[in-house]
Amino acid sequence: xxxxxxxxxxxxxxxxxxxxxxxxxxxxxxxxxxxxxxxxxxxxxxxxxxxxxxxxxxxxxxxxxxxxxxxxxxxxxxxxxxxxxxxxxxxxxxxxxxxxxxxxxxxxxxxxxxxxxxxxxxxxxxxxxxxxxxxxxxxxxxxxxxxxxxxxxxxxxxxxxxxxxxxxxxxxxxxxxxxxxxxxxxxxxxxx
Length: 192
Fold this sequence. Notes:
192 residues, 4 helices, alpha+beta, eight-stranded antiparallel β-sheet, two-stranded antiparallel sheet
């Protein structure tokens, strides 16, 4: 009888251990955080806060992911940013930066471009609506569609889609415009 009781107790303990639930890291994006004053953050703010990277060194997992994504290209530099691991490299004579999130998944790449690389519709609109501004640096963000992590550029988070960003200057004022692949242009931010 003792053996039967012991067998039942072990079975129940094993079943409880197998069915125990934990909170996986992937669910962290759904957690709502309290701010210092007790107010709730919205989900986007919470996701941004939760994915902040710890430490000063690029993670081993991000290095492995970079090698898997880009083959035997050696990065010229690596840097741990607040929210991403950045790898700067040259491929086919063009310098790019690849950004990896907290899960060491590629978010996207950034490459320097020129005003002439913008869609024709965007060039016309910028020349017309921002004629008193001088075009400056242009970057192209190539999104990894398999990763839903939003990118952060110029200190702002944006919905990750392939797009251009162009800095425009008028006197001491500098702004950034967001240019979509279809040529739509919108104000993004002001630089100080």
